[in-house]
Amino acid sequence: MFDIGFLELLICGVIALLILGPERLPGAARTAGQWVGRTRRLVRQFTSELDRQVKADELREKLRKEGGIDLDGVEKNVRDGIAKARDYEHLILSDEEKRKLESAPRSREEALQQSQTATAEVPPDQASDNRDPHADTPQAAPDNRT
């Protein structure tokens, strides 16, 4: 990339020593080293992410060429298989497990509907009676002094 030899580094070091002085030169060298390290890590992360993306694209292309596998079709097949498995889960579950599954929602939408109906069924005067009496009291921040 850059063709910097030992002579160029020596000249830069002498110039930095003359400009900064012997007191501030170690701090400046440490800061410059940190910047170089951060830059190298950033470049390494960027190239590794780029390599991962290229490998993923190559794998997708290889799958399309060899088997004609469509990722959306695979996802649909998995969802259909899960739905069919739910149809037969009553054969392997005990009665207690069945009751738990029947009361539990099967999807996020069902869970939202159940939570909305549960909050709508409680009258406002009863809802205030069930509250935690200490919920409104402010708590002191932990003391972090050592």
Mean pLDDT across the residues is: 76
Number of strands: 0
Distance between the termini: 50 Å
* N to C succession of SSEs: HHHHH
> What spatial form do the alpha-carbon principal axes imply?
elongated
- As a percent range, the share of strand residues is under 5%
Q: Please report the number of helical segments.
A: 5
Specify the biggest β-sheet: none
Oligomer: single chain
Radius of gyration: 32 Å
Q: Helix fraction?
A: over 70%
Describe this structure in words.
This protein is mainly alpha-helical. Helices cover 75% and strands 0% of the residues. It contains five helices and no strands. The chain is elongated and about 85 Å long.
SSE inventory with pairings:
Elements: H1 6-67, H2 71-88, H3 95-103, H4 108-121, H5 124-129
Question: Keywords for this structure?
Answer:
single chain, mainly alpha, 146 residues
In short:
The protein has 146 residues and is an all-alpha fold. It is built from five helices and no strands.
